């Protein structure tokens, strides 16, 4: 394994008396897909927000290529977020501009990093719409006329267009029909392999984690209770909580 | 300065005696209306604005005796930079004879007693609403623009707390998205006036609602350009010879828009034209919006004819 | 042949002369005096003082006369005059417990120290046009004398605060900002918000306050107390170092009691919305206190979901002098911009027509 892109250690965060994160450590290597699983309230979404710099921890550090993410200025962090990082929200409405056309949504990140040739931006947008299987004829339509699955695929295209190295995903298949979920998971898997992306994905869906992730972290009440290679954790869970999680999937 | 006592004893009597809307120089007011402390405050804002081209500086705009939205920002800037030796020109829509231009010129004649002119070449300070004169301006001239809405991003993001952040981070992708959308839907950038510019490669700026035709005149202009927004309480500036670029795409370059006609009075084909409806049967004609420039050209043509 | 319009200067002078003539109306009807306006339209005078943010009944009455009864125009005249006045400093905080009361009511208690004093109010009048007023030379109505209220009347909110049920307001360490000197900045502190609301447009405040009662914002208000009367204004000149009395001004104060379910750091308690305005302006003071409470959503950790809780929205749009100027500026000539739009639209139409498929021809 290569040197990690993202490393975090000692992350602790409390909301009042309630600990959301307790001494959490995590790292993500180049091209690696890491899933954070746990039930709602386990702290997994908070962890994602802290790792991506959206929220500051009470203690601990997050480093991107050795640089302290929370110590950098807002300008540097926002630049990172529109170049080397991407964020896919659970609700595509949080990650898309609903009053801007599909092409404009995909083109925005290109323009934010200085693209100034309309024709090239459009060509790039069309190629990304094709990659996420959105009909080219819909390029000038507003995302609010899209289905939930299409919106989510558009959000992924918008995020990947600037070729980020690391993408944070917060329950990207949440709220979608089961058949649509499967198609989206396939798409995420093929794109991340093709582009050599690192992905940090938060999900409560063990099956999704099994399909996508190289490694899994299991969270409970703000702590990482178990982590390891996906097959090992899911086939031979050590912690009773992981055993419970895995067996509930099997039972379902 | 007066004290509250002499205001009640004398000030009220004064108010009862003279009509503030009549007469020439007004008594009881400081030169150019604003008190000196206020002028200093505004000049400090102007200096800051000149130091950071295109960046909006908040200032403690005063209530003026003219309504907000009618040029109070420009008037305060003009009042703060005007000296007794200045010659002032005021235009609205390019013309010295539009009602609001007359009203503002009248105001300064009354409160500052400065010389006024309709000739661009003779003016040391030019206050304008919606136009830049056609004649090339000089280093010894100052342009003062009246600005209704200083925030170029306001239609995309109404919250000032947020636009302030976007400026700080030079995060202007959103503005380009807007232009992209225009081209995608209409084949053209739809902005025809108040067309956003990048100043000195750093700040996105509203040029005030001048027609896009006038944008190129701002680029490396020899004169200092000052912008005053009274209601929104912001001042910004472009120092002489500063780079001012209209936003565009490489393959959809900025194009100045003008009616493709010649002026019916002076024959000009490269000035900004007003369309005048002459009857209700589709009759129309096009004439220069800059009335001083047009008159000059007509006079020159007349003297050439006389000489021949 | 068309000739460019000239003579704007003459037109303006003529228009203003005509305005003056219509202001006076029929010369056969006696002219209104400033004293008549001040005495017989006191609530109009109060509103102009509040929105003009200048406590001077004479000037407000003069402004109403000059503005032909247009109260926003009158407030504008007063503001424009006010801004030319020198500023000596800030008075001592007004002590409204020592108010010389004309009216004092509480909706939260049946009776309370200091009593309920109805005072001169439209409340409980039947809104029937009184044609007797149309007759000239009406008899002067004489009201029975009110027994003098106590010199000091405690505030309802203070009674609750002593029990620990009303949130105490923190004393500000630094001098509050002055809206007439510094532009608004966000987030805006409460003193600046209150200054803004105190001179905000009454109609705007009323509509926003009303909206909080109808579910736009989470208000559960009770009128803790409304008091109307006069307070002494004191000022400490730096050269003296002790306060001296400048005189009295008429004000209306409203304290609205609101529920607050508490947070992790604070127990459940009541919170207040506060309104204080020049003159007798109950509607304004009540609306102001509803909006003030709405705008406290941020500091109290409540969700900001309604217009009355959105401080940029409320504070940037409350000022009717700013609003009327910008709305009315649309009647200024805009033909240069319009021409640019026109040419652009024509060009877009040409592009679209050229792109039409052959079959459409």
TrEMBL record, chain A:
Domain ABC transporter per the UniProt entry, residue ranges: 6-246
Annotated GO MF terms: ATP binding; ATP hydrolysis activity; lyase activity
Pfam families: ABC_tran
Keyword ATP-binding: yes
Nucleus recorded as keyword: no
Record key words, sorted: ATP-binding, Lyase, Nucleotide-binding
One record GO biological process: organic phosphonate catabolic process
InterPro entries assigned to the protein according to its UniProt record, in alphabetical order: AAA+_ATPase, ABC_transporter-like_ATP-bd, ABC_transporter-like_CS, P-loop_NTPase, PhnK
Name of the protein this chain belongs to: Phosphonate C-P lyase system protein PhnK
Lineage summary: Bacteria, Pseudomonadati, Pseudomonadota, Alphaproteobacteria, Acetobacterales
From TrEMBL, chain C:
UniProt KW keywords: Lyase
GO molecular function, one term: lyase activity
Superkingdom of origin organism: Bacteria
Pfam families assigned to the protein according to its UniProt record, in alphabetical order: PhnI (PF05861)
Biological-process GO terms, alphabetical: organic phosphonate metabolic process
Keyword Lyase (UniProt): yes
Name listed for the protein in its UniProt record: Carbon-phosphorus lyase complex subunit PhnI
């Amino acid at each position: 394994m290569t040197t990690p892109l993202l490393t975090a250690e000692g992350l602790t965060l409390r909301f009042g008396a309630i600990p959301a994160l307790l001494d959490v450590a995590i790292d993500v290597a180049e091209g690696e897909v890491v899933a954070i699983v746990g039930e709602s309230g386990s702290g997994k979404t908070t962890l994602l927000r802290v790792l991506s710099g959206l929220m500051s921890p009470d203690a601990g550090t997050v480093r991107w290529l050795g640089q302290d993410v929370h110590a950098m200025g807002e300008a540097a962090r926002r630049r990172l977020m529109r170049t080397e990082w991407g964020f896919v929200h659970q609700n595509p409405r949080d990650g898309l501009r609903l009053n801007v056309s599909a092409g404009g949504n995909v083109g925005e990140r290109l323009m934010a990093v200085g693209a100034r040739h309309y024709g090239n931006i459009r060509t790039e947008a069309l190629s990304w719409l094709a990659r996420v299987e959105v009909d080219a004829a819909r390029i000038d339509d507003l995302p609010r006329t899209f289905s939930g699955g299409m919106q989510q695929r558009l959000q992924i295209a918008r995020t990947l267009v600037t070729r980020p190295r690391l993408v944070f995903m917060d329950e990207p298949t949440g709220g979608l029909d089961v058949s649509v979920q499967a198609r989206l998971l396939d798409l995420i898997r093929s794109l991340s392999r093709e582009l050599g992306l690192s992905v940090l994905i938060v999900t409560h869906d063990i099956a999704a984690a099994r399909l996508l992730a190289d490694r899994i972290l299991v969270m409970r009440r703000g702590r990482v209770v178990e982590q390891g290679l996906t097959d090992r954790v899911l086939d031979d869970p050590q912690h009773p909580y992981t055993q419970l999680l895995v067996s509930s999937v099997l039972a379902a | 300065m007066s004290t509250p006592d002499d205001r009640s004893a004398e000030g009220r009597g004064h108010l009862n005696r003279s009509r503030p809307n009549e007469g020439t120089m007004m008594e009881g007011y400081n030169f150019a209306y604003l008190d000196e402390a206020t002028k200093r405050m505004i000049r400090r804002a102007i200096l800051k604005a000149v130091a950071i081209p295109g960046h909006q500086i908040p200032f403690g705009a005063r209530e003026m005796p003219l309504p907000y939205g009618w040029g109070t920002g420009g008037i305060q800037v003009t009042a703060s930079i005007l000296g007794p030796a200045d010659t002032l020109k005021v235009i609205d829509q390019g013309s010295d004879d539009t009602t609001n231009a007359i009203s503002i010129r009248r105001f300064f004649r009354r409160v500052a007693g400065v010389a006024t002119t309709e000739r661009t070449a003779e003016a040391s300070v030019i206050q304008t609403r919606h136009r830049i004169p056609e004649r090339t301006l000089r280093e010894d001239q100052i342009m003062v623009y009246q600005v209704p809405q200083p925030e170029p991003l306001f239609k995309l993001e109404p919250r000032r707390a947020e636009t302030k952040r976007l400026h700080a981070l030079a995060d202007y992708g959103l503005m380009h998205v807007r232009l992209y959308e225009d081209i995608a839907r209409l084949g053209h950038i739809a902005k025809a006036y108040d067309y956003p510019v990048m100043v000195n490669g750093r700040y996105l700026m509203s040029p005030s609602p001048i027609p896009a035709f006038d944008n190129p005149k701002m680029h490396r202009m020899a004169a200092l350009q000052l912008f005053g927004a009274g209601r929104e309480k912001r001042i910004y500036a472009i120092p002489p010879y500063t780079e001012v670029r209209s936003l565009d795409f490489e393959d959809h370059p900025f194009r100045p828009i003008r009616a493709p006609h010649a002026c019916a009075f002076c024959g000009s084909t490269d000035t900004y034209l007003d369309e005048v409806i002459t009857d209700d049967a589709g009759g129309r004609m096009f004439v220069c919006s800059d009335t001083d420039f047009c008159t000059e050209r007509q006079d020159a043509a007349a003297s050439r004819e006389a000489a021949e | 042949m068309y000739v460019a319009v000239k003579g704007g200067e003459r037109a303006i002078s003529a228009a203003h002369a005509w305005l003056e003539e219509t202001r006076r109306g029929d010369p056969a009807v006696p002219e209104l005096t400033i004293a008549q306006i001040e005495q017989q339209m006191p609530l109009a005078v109060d509103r102009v003082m509040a929105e003009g943010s200048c406590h001077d009944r004479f000037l407000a009455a003069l402004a109403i006369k000059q503005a032909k009864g247009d109260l926003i125009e009158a407030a504008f005249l007063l503001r424009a005059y006010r801004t030319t006045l020198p500023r000596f400093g800030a008075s001592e905080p007004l002590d409204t417990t020592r108010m010389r009361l004309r009216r004092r009511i509480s909706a939260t208690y049946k009776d309370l120290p200091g009593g309920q004093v109805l005072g001169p109010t439209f409340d409980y009048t039947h809104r029937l046009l009184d044609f007797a007023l149309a007759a000239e030379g009406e008899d002067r109505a004489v009201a029975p004398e009110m027994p003098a209220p106590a010199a000091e009347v405690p505030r309802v909110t203070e009674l609750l605060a002593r029990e620990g049920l009303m949130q105490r307001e923190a004393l500000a360490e630094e001098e509050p900002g002055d809206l007439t000197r510094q532009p608004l900045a966000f987030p805006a502190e409460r003193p600046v918000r209150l200054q803004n609301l105190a001179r905000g447009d009454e109609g705007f405040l009323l509509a926003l306050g009303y909206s909080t009662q109808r579910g736009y914002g989470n208000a559960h208000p009770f009128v803790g107390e409304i008091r109307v009367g006069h307070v002494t204004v004191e000022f400490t000149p730096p050269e003296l170092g002790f306060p001296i009395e400048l005189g009295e001004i008429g004000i209306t104060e409203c304290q609205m009691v609101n529920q607050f379910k508490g947070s992790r750091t604070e127990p459940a308690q009541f919170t207040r919305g506060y309104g204080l305005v020049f003159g007798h302006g109950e509607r304004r003071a009540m609306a102001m206190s509803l909006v003030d409470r709405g705008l406290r959503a941020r500091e109290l950790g409540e969700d900001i979901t309604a217009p009355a809780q959105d401080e940029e929205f409320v504070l940037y749009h409350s000022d009717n002098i700013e609003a009327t100027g910008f709305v009315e500026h649309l009647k200024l000539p805009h033909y240069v911009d319009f021409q640019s739009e026109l040419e652009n639209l024509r060009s877009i139409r040409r592009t679209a027509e050229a792109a039409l498929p052959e079959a459409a021809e």
